[in-house]
Structures are given as structure tokens and as C-alpha cells.
From TrEMBL, chain A:
Gene3D superfamilies: Phosphatidylinositol 3-kinase Catalytic Subunit, Chain A, domain 1 (3.10.20.90)
Lineage of producing organism: Eukaryota, Metazoa, Ecdysozoa, Arthropoda, Hexapoda
InterPro entries: BOL2 (IPR045115), BolA (IPR002634), BolA-like_sf (IPR036065)
Name of the protein: BolA-like protein 2 isoform X2
Pfam family, one: BolA
Record family assignment: Belongs to the BolA/IbaG family.
Taxonomic source organism: Vanessa tameamea (Kamehameha butterfly)
TrEMBL record, chain B:
GO CC term, one of those recorded: nucleus
Keyword Transferase attributed: no
GO molecular function, one term: metal ion binding
Lineage top rank: taxon: Eukaryota
Keyword Ribonucleoprotein: no
Species annotation: Vanessa tameamea
Domain Glutaredoxin: 135-199
Record's protein name: Glutaredoxin 3
GO biological process: intracellular iron ion homeostasis
Key words of the record: Iron, Iron-sulfur, Metal-binding
Domain Thioredoxin: 7-104
Length: 83, 220
């Protein structure tokens, strides 16, 4: 199945109660490639690996066919600090 | 388990009578090469698979036990003869380390340690691979020829830290490629492990680098 940015953005927002999500489709000859920024307080208190695992579990089905997925996971505070 | 000194004909006869493999080194003090063979046999005798097979190792002075040397046509040293049940089953004339090693292994029934026992489960294999080095990278290709942009970038970052690491090319082994994803519950490659634990993929390494935590993570 071919996924769209909207689809992934919606799913991530809903499942992770995200305050802000950006998804960019960088698919190329290799296959589906997406870059995502997810801001959610569900990441609070979790080390990097745990955060990424959380996102991975939300997108478990999709990741079976997506070739590459880059994610940046921030809590609301971290995101505010960045901006 | 070490090498027994055989100094009389009677001792010799008793020694080689064993139903398990006995390895006798015919030696001489004045021959340098015998020192080499002595070392080889010492190392072999320490191998777990050789020990568990009950194989025994002995050394005798070829000139002192000239009767025996004559009997078994030992006309130069070092010579290593393998016995079972008092009968000669194989021999190596001269200090040929490769032959000595492989014949001892074969006759003691020990598996060549390059064989992967079919009974070894995939899980054990993965565990062994993950722990092969303090810092292990499972990637597409290898450090000199990465076969994917993410793998290439990860290697670049690691090279920049100067930390020692080893890589495994998942493109060469489909079983490991799929198995590791399940084992670690991580869907993509490259994967970086430090001391047997998954640190993550390229994203995480980049974030660690940005926050200045990369070196301490690689060198806990």
C-alpha cells in the first residue's frame, strides 16, 4: 500500500495525542521514505529509544512496507525551546 | 588437561591403550621445532571440544624410547602420532601446525569450530553476533562500501568519533536480516548496539551527536 503524508500525519497525531506533527514524503527509487517530526507529551520522561519504539509501534503495519523512516521526537517543552 | 610426560615403554603402552584419542609427540631436546609442536598440543588440549572428547596428549623423548620410535618408524622429530585402542590411526611428520590441529580435531570427534551447529538456534546466533564487539553495527554493506544512504551516514558519524567498532552486512544473510528485526523489535537498518544493547538507528545516533551524548553512549 502506498501511504500519503496526510495519512501518516493523521495517524500519528491521533495515536500519540501529538500537539504538532510534520511528515514529509521523500520517497525515491528505493521505495517509500518519510521524515517525521512529532511533538507529544507522551514522550515525556522517555529516553530516545523508548520514544522511537513508541512511534514504531503506532506505525507497525505501515513500517512493514515503508522502506525508510526518519523520526524526530520531542516533548512539548523541548519543541517550544527549539522555537 | 595438559601434556603427559611418557618416560618408559610401559607407560607408553598404557597411555595409548585408551579407547579415546591419544596424541603422542615424539620429541627431542635439541630440536627447536619440537618446542613449536609442544605449544600447539598444549593449546589443542585446552580446547573445550577436545577436552570433552576425552582425548589425551603425551610427549616422549624419541631417542630414549628408541624401541617405540623404531616400532612406529619415527625417523625424525618432531613426529606426532595419533592412537586409539593401542593402534596408530594417523600421524604427522614434522611441525605442520595445520595438519596436527585438523587431525586432532577430526579424530577426537570435535567439530571444526568454523561449523555452525545446526542445533544452535537463530536466537543464540543473533546474541553472539550482537556481542561480537563492544560497538556493533548491523548495516547494508560494510564500512568501506556502505550500500545505503543511512548506513553510509552512520559509518561517517562513527568514524568521526574514532571509536572502534565492527560491522555485519545484513545483505549477506537474510536470516539475520529478518531475525534481528524481530529479536530487537526494531524495524529498520542500520542498527547500532553497544555492549549487546540496542542504541537505535541513524536518527537516534544523530540526536545523540547533536546533544553531545554520543561519545559517552559509545563508551559507557
Amino acid at each position: 500500500m502506498v501511504y500519503t503524508e496526510e495519512y501518516l500525519k493523521e495517524k500519528l497525531t491521533k495515536e500519540l495525542e501529538a500537539v504538532h506533527v510534520e511528515v514529509v514524503d521523500e520517497s525515491d527509487g528505493c521505495g517509500g521514505k518519510f521524515v517525521a517530526l512529532i511533538v507529544s507529551d507522551k514522550f515525556q520522561g522517555k529516553p530516545l529509544l523508548a520514544r522511537h519504539r513508541l512511534v514504531n509501534s503506532v506505525l507497525q503495519e505501515e513500517l512493514k512496507t515503508i522502506h525508510a523512516f526518519t523520526q524526530k521526537t520531542l516533548t512539548v517543552d523541548q519543541w517550544k525551546a527549539q522555537n | 588437561m595438559s601434556v603427559t610426560n611418557i618416560d618408559t615403554v610401559d607407560n607408553f603402552v598404557n597411555f595409548v591403550r585408551s579407547p579415546s584419542l591419544t596424541v603422542v609427540h615424539f620429541s627431542a631436546d635439541w630440536a627447536d621445532q619440537c618446542g613449536q609442536v609442544t605449544d600447539i598440543l598444549k593449546e589443542l588440549s585446552k580446547l573445550p571440544e577436545v577436552q570433552s572428547s576425552g582425548s589425551k596428549f603425551g610427549v616422549c623423548d624419541a631417542e630414549n624410547l628408541s624401541e617405540i620410535s623404531l616400532k612406529y618408524k619415527v625417523d625424525s622429530v618432531p613426529t606426532v602420532i595419533l592412537f586409539k585402542n593401542g593402534t596408530q590411526i594417523d600421524r604427522i611428520d614434522g611441525a605442520d601446525a595445520a595438519q596436527i590441529s585438523s587431525k586432532v580435531r577430526t579424530h577426537s570427534g570435535a567439530k571444526n569450530n568454523l561449523d555452525v551447529s545446526p542445533k544452535q538456534s537463530l536466537e543464540e546466533r543473533l546474541k553472539a553476533l550482537i556481542n561480537k564487539h563492544n560497538v556493533m553495527v548491523f548495516m547494508k554493506g560494510n564500512r568501506d562500501a556502505p550500500r545505503c544512504g543511512f548506513s553510509r551516514t552512520l559509518i561517517q558519524i562513527l568514524n568521526g568519533t574514532g571509536v572502534q567498532y565492527e560491522t555485519f552486512d545484513i545483505l549477506t544473510d537474510e536470516e539475520v536480516r529478518q531475525g534481528l528485526k524481530t529479536y530487537s523489535d526494531w524495524p529498520t537498518y542500520p542498527q547500532l548496539y553497544v555492549k549487546g544493547e540496542l542504541v537505535g538507528g541513524l536518527d537516534i545516533i544523530k540526536e545523540l551527536q547533536a546533544s553531545g551524548d554520543l561519545e559517552s553512549t559509545l563508551n559507557p
